[in-house]
UniProtKB/TrEMBL annotation:
Coiled coil regions, renumbered to chain: none
SUPFAM superfamilies, per the entry: Cytochrome c
Main location: membrane
Name of the protein described by the UniProt record: Cytochrome c1
Keyword Iron in annotation: yes
Keyword annotations of the record: Heme, Iron, Membrane, Metal-binding, Transmembrane, Transmembrane helix
Domain Cytochrome c: residue ranges: 62-169
PROSITE patterns: CYTC (PS51007)
Compartments it resides in: Membrane
Organism for this UniProt entry: Sphingobium lignivorans
Protein's UniProt keywords contain Heme: yes
Entry's transmembrane regions: 252-270
Length: 279
């Protein structure tokens, strides 16, 4: 009897311990997380109003060419575009001679046919854009221990990609006084720059677009303001990440039309076949 009562007491306390553990786990899961500077001051990308948004959107070739110019004259100093081939620039409206000239102006890795040693040669249309830095060590050494990301797929690798790139390029600002008041330990460090559109609010990249006219557009093109240049290069990077987007949208629309037609046809067939049948 005593052993039975002892077992019951032990079972009771084991149950209480289990309930306490479960209650603590539920409280831990349901408890709101502690506020941080990132959760309170990080902002979602602003809408830039690109021509390719929506199911019927399409790329603006003139804008893509301006964006490629901004990439070439500003971004390519640090960021590679290694997943894009020179010949793909034909989608932007460049002709064969222009593409050959663009490729020839860049040196791509090669091998000396006589010695077998590493060498470089002039680019050809079939080549991809060469890497800016040969390895991560060189990239870190040239960029204050930061590695500039390859921009080939950046517009697909980030949420709301093109709008994110646009917002990031135009979002540099001084830290808000409220942030420093609430989170004094979040002061932007030396060599970093505050940007509310970046995940942790501070990034090593200095503002790449700083003044109107930093890139000179051709005649008949819009004024190269910081906002315009940011939109143009963001559109170009969207094309680089998804060059077949227009074809995908066209195919999708055709498939939807076909499915609607097939549905109507199937319904009419059903009505005709079962018209004189009792259900």
């Amino acid at each position: 009897m005593v052993r039975f009562l002892g077992a019951l007491v032990g079972l009771f306390f084991s149950g209480m311990l289990l309930l306490s553990f479960l209650w603590g786990a539920v409280a831990f899961v349901s408890a709101p997380p502690e506020p941080t500077a990132e959760t309170e001051f990080h902002e979602h990308p602003r809408k830039a109003g690109f021509s390719f948004t929506g199911p019927f959107g399409h790329y603006d070739r003139a804008q893509l060419q301006r964006g490629f110019q901004v990439y070439t004259e500003v971004c390519s100093a640090c960021h590679s575009l290694h997943q894009v081939a020179f010949r793909s620039l034909s989608d932007l409206g460049y002709n064969e001679a222009e593409i050959k000239a663009i490729a020839k102006a860049r040196q791509v890795p090669s091998i000396d046919p006589n010695t077998g040693e590493a060498a470089t040669r002039e680019g050809m249309p079939a080549d991809k854009f060469p890497l800016v830095y040969p390895n991560e060590v060189a990239a870190r050494a040239a960029n204050n221990n930061a590695i500039p990301p390859d921009l080939s797929l950046i517009a697909k690798a980030r949420h709301d990609g093109a709008n994110y790139v646009y917002s990031l390029l135009t979002g540099y600002q001084a830290q808000p006084a409220e942030l420093l008041r609430k989170f004094p330990d979040s002061k932007t460090g030396e060599g970093l720059h505050y940007n509310p559109y970046f995940a942790n609010l501070n990034l090593a990249m200095a503002p790449p677009l700083t003044a109107e006219g930093q890139v000179t557009y051709g005649e008949g093109q819009p004024r190269p303001t910081v906002d315009q240049m940011a939109k143009d290069v963001s559109a170009f990077l969207m094309w680089a990440a998804e060059p077949k987007m227009e074809a995908r949208k066209s195919t999708g629309i055709a498939v939807v039309i076909f499915l609607i037609f097939a549905t109507v046809l199937a319904y009419m067939s059903y009505q005709n076949i079962w018209a004189n049948k009792e259900h």
